[in-house]
Each structure stands twice: as structure tokens, then as C-alpha cells.
Design a protein that fits this description.
- This protein is an all-alpha fold.
- 71% of the residues lie in helices and 0% in strands.
- Helix 3 runs antiparallel to helix 4 and helix 5 runs parallel beside helix 8.
- The protein is elongated, with a radius of gyration of 33 Å.
Length: 421
């Protein structure tokens, strides 16, 4: 069975809103338990941990959404990935599993090296930051944080696969399950007196659960069989096709981080941990609102990529028009795109020679009477001479004919057509 992009509807959007609010708001829900059992300094270190995690995710540098978009192109039926534009899809739209397998290898290789770089960076520079600047160092919590970031980054391509395949609802359900696990484990460990280790340990468990469920969702039995049969394409041209656009997205993410998150790291060197904690909590609340604004677009990314691969500009226009109508966006890129004018095709018609060969054939048929043959021949001449539609010719009767405007030959001609044989 051929794999295709899943249909995306209102339920996917609803689950996306729920998961976004729950994921970003999990920290807010956990705050009462943290504040009641931990000191303000510990809360400040926790916010610094979160900022470091956000900084680590920047090393993805836009490759995750770029990988997701190209996975959508592959499941739409493209046979090659391009730097500019999208390769055309043939009439069959079959998935090129060789290209998909090569893309999977490219993603695994890319994130493997990124995870290794993160490990070296956190084990050296991160450790020095906590020890010399903050002079507060929790060995177990810090080791767990390094493990979380390395594992999460190494398996980050699972998110790209789910989004690229259109598993929007399932992906959000997995995210909610992981966050519920995180809250339950964290609250239990906090009351057990584990301190900051409780939060970081709960994050590690939730991350592992999320990745396991994501793997089982995407790599179905049928897909595994197709990938085993397929050859692996060279990953170098795949990365070369994805890299330029990924860098553009990565620069955008970097700018957003510098605006929103860098103040936490810089402020920790000049402000008290209590002040850093207050600022970090405010950022979490604002983050919920900001992410909700992009839920609809992020949910429809696979379908938008499929429409682009299939050259279905009509559906793309409808999507952006819908967002304008529902006041979810004030920008429609198709306002700057003029529709291409296509040449009007001439109707298919019979030549004079073909008409001459058909003339009189209806009367020569042995299976009909002479009267029926004369009627059919008259109907044939009427269609040819008038150019009317078949449905119009069949609806003709004597009551509809204005005999006063015709000569002597025409009434007899129409009488033959309208006679009930």
C-alpha cells in the first residue's frame, strides 16, 4: 500500500491548540509545587536550565522544519529534492522510497554530529558557566540536563517525520502524554525532596516516552518493508538541497532567541536569581500566547507542501483566503501573484471529409426502418447545421418551433426530427 500524507482537519487544529497550551503551560502548572518546595535561587537556576535548552535547540538551525517540508514533498510523489522550487510530480504520485531512505540517513547523520557537538559544549563551557559565574552547581541535575539535550537533539528528526507525514493529531497527542508524564513524575519527585533533580529527571523520562511513541507511529510495518526493499540515495545532494533554506530559517530562529531568551543568561551575571526567576516565569506565560498564534499554519504545513508539489495553486489560494476571512492573518501572499492566463482551447470538430463520410450512414443501417433512418439522418444534419447541443436537439418538439420565421424547407426538416417513431 502506498504511503500518503494524512488528511488534516479541524480536529488536528484543536489538538494542536491543546498540545501547545499544555506543553508551554506545563511549567506554569508546575510552578505552585516548585515555589512551595524550592527556594527562589533554585527556581532561578531552573529558568537558566530552560534557557540553555532553548539555546541548544538553536543548533538545529532551521533543519527540522526544512526536513519536515521535504518529507512532505517526498510523500507527495517528488523524485528529487531541489534548492529552488519543487520537482514536478508525475501522474501516479508514487512515493520514492529510495529518496525517503536517503533523507532518513541524512537526518540521522546531521543530528548525530549536532548531538556530539552539544555534549562537548555543555560538558565544558556549560560546566564552567555554572561553576565560575553562578558558583552554584548541582552535579546530578546538570548531568541529567546534558543527557536530555543530547538525546532530544539526536532524535529530533522524529518530529520532522511526523509533521512531514501529516501526523498532526497523533504528534500532538504524543506531546500531551509526554507532558502529563512529566508533570506527574516531577510533582512526585519534588515532594520526595529531590529538588532540581526532580524536574530534570522528569524531563528525561518524558522525552524518552515521546521518542518511543513517535518512532512507533511513523515507522509502521508497511513502511519498514518498503524501506528495506529500497536502495539508499546518496545523502550529499540531499543535504545540499536542504541546507540553503534551512540556514535562512535558522537565522530567523536565532534572531528570535536573541530578542526573547538571551536576557535570562545575561541577566544572571548581573541580577539576583530571584529577579531572573520572575523574568523567566513572565516569559513562559508570553510564550503560550506567541505559540498559539502559529498553530494553524504549523498544522497545515504538510498539506501546503503537498499542494505546492502538485502545483495545486487553487487550494493554496483557498487556504490563505480562509485565514484572512477568519482574521487569523492579515497577509495573503497571493495578493502579489497574478494568475497565469491559459490559452483557450479550440473545441474538437469534424472535418468536411468526415462529415461527408457520415452523411447518409444512418439511413443505410440494416437494423433500423427507413423511417427511423430518415429521422436520424435529419437529426444529424440539424446538429451539424445549427451547432446546438445534443440535449437541446433532443428537447425539440413541434410546439417549440416558430414556423412563421422559416421557409418552406425547414418545417418539413423539423417535422421529421420531432415525429414520434
Amino acid at each position: 500500500m502506498t504511503e500518503k500524507i494524512e488528511n488534516i482537519g479541524k480536529r488536528d487544529i484543536a489538538w494542536s491548540y491543546a498540545a501547545t497550551i499544555f506543553t508551554v503551560g506545563a511549567g506554569v502548572l508546575l510552578l505552585p509545587f516548585i515555589l512551595s518546595k524550592m527556594s527562589a535561587e533554585t527556581v532561578g537556576i531552573w529558568n537558566i536550565f530552560q534557557t540553555i535548552t532553548a539555546l541548544v535547540m538553536l543548533l538545529d538551525f532551521g533543519f527540522r522544519p526544512s526536513f519536515a517540508r521535504n518529507v512532505s514533498y517526498i510523500f507527495s510523489g517528488v523524485k528529487a529534492l531541489q534548492v529552488n522550487g519543487v520537482a514536478s510530480v508525475d501522474d501516479h504520485g508514487e512515493v520514492d522510497y529510495s529518496l525517503l531512505k536517503g533523507t532518513l540517513r541524512a537526518m540521522q547523520l546531521f543530528y548525530r554530529w549536532i548531538a556530539l557537538a552539544v555534549f562537548v559544549l555543555l560538558a565544558t563551557g556549560g560546566t564552567a558557566y555554572f561553576y565560575f559565574i553562578l558558583q552554584k552547581y548541582t552535579m546530578v541535575a546538570w548531568i541529567l540536563l546534558i543527557a536530555i539535550n543530547c538525546y532530544n537533539l539526536y532524535t529530533l528528526y522524529y518530529d520532522a517525520l511526523l509533521l512531514g507525514k501529516g501526523y498532526v493529531k497523533r504528534s500532538q497527542q504524543i506531546s500531551i502524554v509526554a507532558q502529563i508524564t512529566y508533570l506527574g513524575v516531577a510533582i512526585g519527585l519534588i515532594y520526595a525532596g529531590c529538588g532540581l533533580t526532580a524536574i530534570v529527571g522528569a524531563q528525561l523520562i518524558a522525552t524518552i516516552i515521546r521518542r518511543v511513541l513517535s518512532y512507533r507511529t511513523f515507522f509502521t510495518k508497511a513502511l519498514k518493508e518498503q524501506l528495506e526493499k529500497a536502495d539508499t540515495q546518496d545523502i550529499k545532494p540531499i543535504l545540499q538541497a536542504i541546507y540553503p533554506n534551512a540556514v535562512k530559517v535558522g537565522l530567523t530562529y536565532l534572531g528570535g532567541f536573541l530578542i526573547n531568551k538571551s536576557a535570562v543568561l545575561m541577566g544572571s551575571a548581573f541580577l539576583s536569581l530571584e529577579q531572573v526567576a520572575c523574568y523567566g516565569i513572565t516569559l513562559q506565560v508570553m510564550d503560550v500566547l506567541a505559540r498559539c498564534g502559529s498553530v494553524v499554519y504549523q498544522s497545515y504545513v504538510p498539506k501546503l507542501a503537498q499542494c505546492r508539489a502538485e502545483r495545486n495553486m487553487g487550494q493554496l489560494r483557498k487556504y490563505y483566503a480562509y485565514r484572512i476571512r477568519e482574521k487569523e492573518s492579515s497577509f495573503n501572499p497571493f495578493d502579489f501573484v497574478k494568475a497565469l492566463k491559459t490559452d483557450r482551447k479550440l473545441p474538437v470538430y469534424l472535418s468536411a471529409g468526415e462529415i461527408n463520410r457520415l452523411d447518409g450512414q444512418t439511413e443505410k443501417r440494416e437494423s433500423v426502418s427507413a423511417a427511423l433512418g430518415a429521422r436520424d439522418n435529419a437529426l444529424f444534419h440539424f446538429l451539424y447545421a445549427s451547432g446546438c447541443r445534443i440535449s437541446e436537439a433532443l428537447s425539440i418538439n413541434l410546439e417549440k418551433v416558430d414556423f412563421s420565421r422559416m421557409d418552406d424547407a425547414i418545417p418539413a426538416f423539423l417535422t421529421i426530427i420531432a415525429m414520434p417513431f
